[in-house]
Task: structure prediction
Amino acid sequence: VQLVAELRQALERDEFVAVFQPLFDSDERPVALETLVRWQHPERGLLPPGEFIPVCEESGLIVELGRRVLDQAARHYRRLVDEGLPGLRVAVNVSPAQFNDELVRHVTETIQRHSLPPEALELEITEGLLMQDPERAIELMRQIAALGVSFSIDDFGTGYSSLAYLKRFPIDRLKIDRSFVRDLGSDEDDAAICNSIIGLAQALDIRTVAEGVETVLQLDWLRARNIDEVQGYLLGRPMPFEELLPLLLRYL
Ligand code: G
Ligand code: G
Ligand code: MN
Ligand code: NA
Result:
């Protein structure tokens, strides 16, 4: 209860900040930024999402927080364009507790308010969200996809999504969970899992993204299998926009 009150106050005081992690395509060019929220706590410093997202989800505060994050993503997309970097996507994580009609409204409003090209916006959702109430998920996804916004399945491989269903959702990308990427090159099971996910995605005409790429070995392994996009500490950590911008400008 204490933390909920603190979080409500943090929203009022605008203490949530966004950091951004770049994603790169197979030509090693930046193609997207994932928006990741942090809490700039007045006494405890910069707190990671694990310390407050669960409570935000339980208390419903995630709805307002999600709206702020979406707004940050749209504002920073505009910054990219102003700096001569058009064409990158901005991705935002969406919790199951946010996945309702209000999200459709927030997305629609954000696109209009910031003149954000809908194709530039990507929503990251989890398998858990899809499987909780698949019919409802499909309906909401179709409404949002109709705007031109795309969907990624985050942490793919850790949940229990049925392949039959996967085909029915308007999904643009699968983000292979970093637990499968970690031991690529040494663990044969992880290599087999990554191979199957990439093969499945290619068969369903869905793009693939590997997250948690930390070594050149992993990167080469994935590129040899035609992974579409990569993300990870090797290529760029989550960082404040002002820090990331000069790195992106180098690719111009
Ligand atoms: O930023 P970090 O890598 O520590 O993220 C940890 C987890 O928090 C990830 O699972 C990520 O999806 C989640 N997360 C980060 N930012 C947001 C956000 O703005 N909204 C929601 N719902 N989850 C987020
Ligand atoms: O669940 P989601 O994919 O949204 O989580 C993103 C989280 O993954 C963030 O907490 C981010 O800091 C973390 N992350 C991003 N790249 C790497 C990486 O290369 N290695 C590890 N261990 N974590 C990463
Ligand atoms: Mn994510
Ligand atoms: Na992930």
About this structure: The chain has one domain: 2-249. The pocket of manganese (II) ion (ligand 3) is lined by residues 34, 93, 124, 154 (CB under 6 Å).
